[in-house]
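Reviewer 2 asked us to include a model.

Predict the structure of this chain.
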Amino acid sequence: MTESAPALRKAPGLPFPLQEGEDVTRLIRRHWIYLWPSILFQAAFFLIPAVFAWLALDAIGLFDDLGMIFWLILAFYALFWVVTIFLTWYRYQNDVWVVTNQRLIDCFKTHPFNLRLTTIDLVNVQDMTIERNGVLRTMLDYGDVIC
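Predicted model (structure tokens):
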């Protein structure tokens, strides 16, 4: 007699199936402090050189001659930074930890064609440590959980 595999069911909003009798207790993402400074930094890397180049070309009188080339280069430059900012946001949205009544799941997608999924059954967890070091982590109430 063979034992059948447990029935899997698709959970809405999760890129992996849940096991039979498994319920999501908590869905956790990184703190927003990881996302917004990075996006602002990337936006500054886009805007500051673009504005500086536009003002420099205008100041030396070459903007009238090189205007179309400038806008073409700026469009490719902007496309690069828009894709970079989108991927930063995508990684933030798709880096989740799921706590269920049966296991802990770490799910991370760096881009749509990549998925890293790590699970551990709760019966195998013997020790957990919570670390929160520093003023910023204490004020914003976030830290690291080590199993």
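The first helix runs from residue 36 to 59. Helices lie at 36-59, 63-93, 135-140. We have added this to the supplementary material.
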